[in-house]
Amino acid sequence: MKTFRKYSFGSKGAATTKLNALPHDEEGNPTHSHAIVHLGHLVETEGTYDDEGNELTAPVLSSTYHIDVLWDGAPLESWDSAMVWCPPMGIHTFGSSSAIAEWTEACKELHPEYFPEPSEDLI
Amino acid sequence: MSIYDKSSLVLIPSGTKTGKVFSQKPVSGDGDFTFTRASAATRVNADGNIEKETQNLLLQSNSFLTSWVRTGYTLTSGQSGYDGTNNAWLAECTSAGQALYQTSNASGVSTLSFHLKQGTANFLRLRADQSADAIAVFDLSDGSVHSFNGNVIDTNVVDLGGGWYRCSMTWNIDTLSNVQLRAEDGNGSPILGTFYIQDAQLEQGLVARDVITTTTAAVYGGITDNTPRLDYTDSSCPALLLEPQRTNELSHSEYINAAGGYAITGASVTYNSSTSPDGYTNATLFDIPYDNAGFYNFDTGGSKSVGDKLTISLFAKLKSGSVTNVLKLGYGGAAVGGDRLSEFNLSTGTISYSHPSADSVSIKDYGNGWYRLIQTQTCSADGFAGAVMYGKGEMDVYIWGVQSEDAAYATSYIPTYGSSVSRVVDNGYKDGLSVFGTNKGSFFVDAEGPNYNGIAASYLFDLSDNSSDIVNRFAVYAINQNTFNIFTNGGNSFTLDASIRKKILVIWNGTNTKVYANGVKVLDFTYANANPTSINLNSRFNDVEYGKSEFKQVLTFPTALTDQEAIDLTTI
């Protein structure tokens, strides 16, 4: 089973340290089968641009450094302190339907506030 | 004796199942390759269409007694359906003000469809419930869309005959609460009454696709997790497509709208205007009235660093406009030093201008007037890069499948519907083989690739004993776009364009090793005693250093083939 989780670190260096602790061979190649995506510093405030695409104000980036992992199995507990949750739309996901469904269920259980309730007026 | 009679394993990719690519020989199945990919993907199928993952996210899609909240509704099965079965249901609303609904947390661009037929109620309302909801009302007396409002992108009705219609509504909503259906009077008020219902479906994307029936869980089909891709690009014979992990950094690849970060300048757009390369009516029409009208999008995955490689691609088809007018595509912004756009003539399917700063520019014919336009760029500074598409001259052009990858070449299309998406790496391998002789054997591939990634070696194949030991090793990999190395004892390099189709044969006989490529002996060196037991395609044994390759044929032999056999086998 693959498990999708999101992580936030204080710096790129902190994230790299964590990644380097995953199994590697003597040449530095990963020998684990987890999929890693570096999201880096997320855009917290979009930039603004004129009609020709020239930047008027630069995007504002997060100070934290973000990584998404598709674990081959359960997430490593040693990573739990960096795990973060967010509403299920808009940033990044792996294209695995089963992993997305599991993540959505886990997120909903931990953070129901990210999921809209049915309208009181169903009609 | 034919060369196939002499072989010990024949893999001509044509049959697959989840996690497996079948070999034709040995027939015992001992030669079947293991395949893994922990995500969905796309391919060009036998019909020439780009095939995606399909899904129905609703539960009990044609059994409305469970998973559906039906307060105020009575459902009776066994009704005559649109498909000639008796699988339809009669729905009777006995308490006005109620809706038949199912909880769903689907997110992004989604399409809800029901097969419906009027009873005593003519007007039926579909609703995607959230604070910013989407509503469409259908008139089943004539199969028309009565009204819609909210976050609706599009509505559609397909006449199925016999009074049945497939009614669908498409929206873009961050996260849903539920989807609903109710009878109403056409003026916004719920009513008591009856109607017939069959096959509900909720799926990603701009259109309703083939019906998928679900029971207790969502069902996914098409090119889903661990489904090998037999790709028919440019050929009636498929090839096994293996690619590295990649991300489409754009959060919307088909819904070209401000919601996905697109700034549409000057042009007007119409969604679901024409058939796209996936065979569905989900292409977006851009009416471009003058030079430099089009879009830009800086939602390309955050800040870039100098030296980063970026590749933009999209599918385009000219609807109308002068044959001399062109579409401009590339990147803009500080990271690339301003607009760096190449120009593509969609009438002739040619590149009319390659921007001098681009690493590479290409155009590929996808049939029916569609072309995939591609440009790769290296960042010249730290900063942001925007995907840019402009017209040059007045033109109407269909657009579909916009993709931005932080990489040195384009890979297969990765659809996105609200978040950037990563397709995970393909692995194709076979362990525990005993298909070679003792200290002798031959290994042949007919393949395209591997595309060199501009950074590290890209492996075409790796024969090994599943360890990093150089003994028992024959690994062929590209170290740039034109040079291959063979990694073994006494290995060497040979020149071959990585991007072209190639037939490569490695022969070892206990004394020396020869390598043939496209009918020519390219290496001959002393090396003895190799006894590989595993084959990895498009990667090293330990699943690193991937390129992008397509394998049309893989053969193994227990003997060292002769020079003439090698020439015959590898000549294209």
Fold blueprint:
The complex is a heterodimer of chains A (123) and B (572).
Chain A (H helix, E strand, L loop, with lengths): L1 E8 L2 H9 L14 E6 L2 E3 L2 E2 L5 E3 L2 E2 L3 E8 L10 E2 L7 E3 L2 H14 L13
Antiparallel strand pairs in A: 1-7, 1-8, 2-7, 3-6, 4-5
Chain B lengths: L2 H4 L2 E3 L4 E2 L2 E2 L11 E4 L6 E2 L5 E2 L1 E4 L16 E7 L8 E6 L6 E4 L4 E11 L4 E7 L4 E6 L4 E7 L1 E10 L2 E10 L4 E7 L8 E12 L14 E4 L7 E2 L7 E4 L3 E3 L13 E4 L2 E8 L5 E8 L5 E4 L11 E13 L4 E7 L7 E6 L4 E4 L4 E10 L2 E9 L7 E7 L2 E11 L14 E4 L3 E4 L10 E8 L9 E7 L9 E5 L4 E5 L5 E3 L5 E8 L3 E6 L2 E7 L7 E4 L11 E9 L5 H8 L2
Antiparallel strand pairs in B: 1-46, 2-3, 3-4, 4-36, 5-6, 7-19, 8-9, 9-18, 10-17, 11-16, 11-18, 12-13, 12-17, 13-14, 15-16, 20-21, 21-46, 22-35, 23-26, 24-25, 25-34, 26-33, 27-32, 27-34, 28-29, 28-33, 29-30, 31-32, 36-45, 37-42, 37-46, 38-39, 38-45, 39-40, 40-41, 42-43, 43-44
Give a quick set of tags describing it:
A: alpha+beta; 4-stranded antiparallel beta sheet; globular; B: 572 residues; mainly beta; 8-stranded antiparallel beta sheet; 2% helix
Written description of the protein model:
The complex is a heterodimer of chains A (123) and B (572). Chain A is built from two helices and nine strands, in the order E-H-E-E-E-E-E-E-E-E-H. With 123 residues, chain A is an alpha+beta fold. In chain A, the strands form three sheets. A four-stranded antiparallel β-sheet of chain A has the order 2-7-1-8. A two-stranded antiparallel ribbon of chain A has the order 3-6. In chain A, strand 4 and strand 5 (55-57) form a beta hairpin. The longest helix of chain A has 14 residues, at 97-110. Chain B is mainly beta and 572 residues long. The longest helix of chain B has 8 residues, at 563-570. The radius of gyration of chain B is 27 Å and the shape is globular. Classes of the chains: A alpha+beta (123), B mainly beta (572). Strand 9 (92-94) of chain A pairs parallel with strand 35 of chain B, so a sheet runs across the interface.
